[in-house]
C-alpha cells in the first residue's frame, strides 16, 4: 500500500518535473535588456504586471548586496514565496563591465543607469563643497559595481554592536559576525608562487569555505605590489591575514572574485542565479519601491500590507501585497529614504513635506561614513602601473580584454588589493573628545533628539576606548592608478569618525534624491586624525623597498602642511563608499530605528536588512559585514517562521535556537523531520519494500531527468554572446549565472557539470571558479570620475 502510494507520488513528481522543464511563456520571456533575446530565467522579470496585485510572503525592497543574499536564503524554503523588487536593471546589458575586475575601476558603472547619481549636500565642514556619492543600482547593488575588496573589521568593532544593545534578543558580536560572514564565503587560496612573490599571507581558519560567494586573489598582480608588505614591515608592522579579529597590520587582501575565472562574484551571481528557476522566488527589476503600505495596527504597532512601486515618475503605479513581511534592503542611503517616504522617520523631516508621521523615529540620523583622501607619489619611470591600461594607451585595454577573454588572465584581472590598517598610536593621536559635549554639539547642529544624543554618547565612549587599542583608525591603500604613467596613489581613509550627519528626504517625490550629509570633518578630532595620518604615509614612503621606487610626493606636495594640508584634504577627499547607521540597530531610547531582530520599532512586520542597521563603523570595507548581516537576518527570519510541533515528540523542545545539541536533534523543528516521524516504517519487510520502490523510483526519475536534460541541451544553444533563448534545463539548476556564460570557457559543456545536481551550487562552492569583484576606494580627487570614465568622459582617453 505504502509502496503504491510512494510510486504514485513519484510519478506525480516526475510529471511535475517534466512540466517544470517544458514550461515556455514567450511573452514573459521578453528581455528588454537584450531585445532580441528572451529571458532565460522565469524568476527574473521586468514586467510589473507579473507581480502587481499579487501576494508574496516576503517582499524585499532592493535587490542589492543584502537584499539578494537574504532572498536567496529565504528561497531555500519551498514553503514561502519571495518577491524582490530592484530599481535598477538585471545587469545583463552591462555584464562585461560588472564581470571584468579591472573594469570596476576603468569602466565604472556608478554614474550611468547602474548608479543612483547622487551627490552630497554642500558640506559645511568641508569648505562647503558637494561630493559625488556613488551607489550601485541594479541586481547585486553596489556589490555588483564596486572595487571588490573583501575584508572584515576587528573583533572589537562587532563586539561594540553587542555592547550598544545590552540584554537584547539577538546577539551581535564578533563571534556571530565571523560565523555569518564565513557562511557567505568560499575562499580560494592563491598559488604558492603568487603568495611568495607578493607576500600574501592567508589564514584559512579565519575564512569561510563552502559559501556561495567566491573570494580570491587577482590572477595578475602588478610587480610593484610586491613592495607593499615589506615596506610596512620596515616600520615594524606584521604582514598577516586581517580576517582573524585584529586588523592592525599590512596585507594583500582577497577580493570578491572567482580568481580562476577572473570574474566578479556578487550576491546575484552567488545567491540568485543558481536559484533562478524556482517559481517561489521572483525578482522584478527596473521598478522602484516608492512606499510601504500600512493599513492596520496590531497592539498599537503598524502592520505593513505591501508596497507600491513604479518604474519612474511618469509610469503607472502598482501595488503588491505581503503575507508576512516587508524587508527594506535599499542600502544605507535609499532605505532611510523609503522609510521616510512611508511615514517612518523624524516628524521634523516628514511634517514640513506634508507626509503623515506613522512612527516618529530617527531614520537617517547617526549617518556616518569613511572619508578618504588620495595622496599621489611620483615613481621611477618604467614601472608598470594601471595608467596606460586605464587610458588605453596604444590600445592597451583592447589587448588586455582580448587576453582576458582568451584566458581569464592578464592585467584586467587586477583590482587593488594592497592595504593595511594603523591605529591611533601609530599616528601619534591620543586626544579623546568629551563624549557628552561632542554628542550635544552634533545633536544641536542637526536637531537630533535626546535619544540619538544618548546613543552617540555610548558610541563615543567606545570610540574613545579604541584610541588606546589596536582598532583600525585608518585604512591605507596603494592605488595603482596615478595622475600619469609614473605615479601611484596612496589613499588614507578614516575608519572611526566622530562626525555624524543625516540622510533626509527633501521632497515627497520618491524620484528626488535625498539630502545626503555625512558631515565629513564636522568634529575637529577627525580633522586632526586625518592630518596625522597623512604624516604617517609620508613616513611610510621613506621606508624600503618602496623608498627606492617613490621619487617624491606629487600631491598634495611635501611642502603642504598645517592649514594648507587641511584645505588640501578637505578639497579632494570623499566617500570610501561605506555609509551606515541610518536605520541603526540600537535601543529605542538610544536612537534606535530597528531592534536586534532588525524589526523597525513600532511595526509588526517591517525589517531593515542592509548596511543601514550597523550602528557603528567598522575598520573594513563594508561588503563582508553586510553579507554577515544579511546571512544572520535570514536565520532570524527563518527561526521566526519555522514550524514548531504542537506536541514535542521528545524532551521538552525549546523555542529558542540556542538549544543543546541533544535537544536540537529532536526531529520536531522541521517539517521534513515531522513528516519522517509520521510515516516511519516499523518492520524490515516494509523497509525492504520501501527501499526497493525507492531505488526503482530513483532510477526512473534519473532516466526522466537525463531525457529532459538531453532534450534541453539540444533545445538550448547559447548564442554567440552566451545567452540562452529559452528556459534552462533541469530542476531549477540547469543554468548557471550570466557571469559564467560570459567568462572564458564559460560556454558549452564543462560548466554544466557543476550544475547538474539538484543541490549543487548554492551551498557548495563552484569548484573551479571565481568571480571578480570590486574596487573600493576611489575617493581620489578624481573620485567618481573614474567610475564615470566610460560613460561620459571619453575625452579622458587620449
Ligand atoms: C563605488 C563603490 C565601491 C565600493 N567598493 C567596495 C569594496 O571594494 N569593498 C567593499 O567591501 N565594499 C565596497 N563598497 C561598499 C559596498 O558595496 C556596500 O557597503 C554594500 O554594497 C552595501 O550593501 P547594501 O545591501 O546595504 O546596499 P546596496 O548593495 O547598495 O544595495 C541596495 C540596492 O537597493 C536598490 N534600491 C534602493 N532603493 C530602492 C527602492 N526604493 N526600490 C527598489 N530598489 C531599491 C538599489 O538599486 C540597490 O541595488 C563600495 C561601494 C561603492 C558604491
Ligand atoms: C552649493 O555650492 C555650490 C558651489 O559650490 C553653489 O553653487 C550652491 O549654490 C550651493 N548650494 C547651497 C544650497 O548652498
Ligand atoms: C489591508 O490591506 C490588505 C491588502 O489590500 C487587505 O486585504 C486587508 O483587508 C486590509 N486590512 C484592513 C484592515 O484594511
Ligand atoms: C509592539 O512593538 C513593541 C516593540 O516595539 C513590542 O514590545 C510589542 O510586543 C508589540 N506588540 C505587538 C502586539 O506586536
Ligand atoms: C583603444 O585604443 C584603440 C586604438 O589605439 C582603439 O582602436 C580602441 O577603440 C580603444 N578602445 C577603447 C575601449 O577605447
Ligand atoms: C609647494 O611647492 C610648490 C612647487 O615648489 C609650489 O608651487 C607651491 O606653491 C608650494 N606650496 C606651498 C603651500 O608652499
Ligand atoms: C517551511 O520549511 C522549512 C524548511 O523545510 C521548515 O523548517 C519550516 O518549519 C516550514 N514552515 C512551515 C510553516 O511549515
Ligand atoms: C515553491 O516552489 C516549489 C518548487 O516548485 C513548489 O513545490 C512550492 O509549492 C512553491 N511554494 C509556494 C509557497 O508556492
Low-confidence stretches: 3-42, 648-698, 702-798
User: Strand-residue fraction?
Assistant: 5-15%
Structural class of the helix and strand makeup?
Answer: alpha/beta
Distance between the termini: 78 Å
Compute the gyration radius: what is it? 26 Å
Helical residues, percent: 25-40%
Name the shape in a single word.
globular
Largest sheet: 8 strands, mixed
Mean pLDDT: 81
Distinct bound molecules: flavin-adenine dinucleotide, 2-acetamido-2-deoxy-beta-D-glucopyranose
Using DSSP, what is the number of strands? 25
Q: Helical segment tally?
A: 24
Oligomer: single chain
Pfam families: GMC_oxred_C, GMC_oxred_N
Protein name: Glucose-methanol-choline oxidoreductase N-terminal domain-containing protein
InterPro entries: FAD/NAD-bd_sf (IPR036188), Glucose_Oxidase_domain_2 (IPR027424), GMC_OxRdtase (IPR012132), GMC_OxRdtase_N (IPR000172), GMC_OxRtase_C (IPR007867)
Transmembrane segments: 687-709
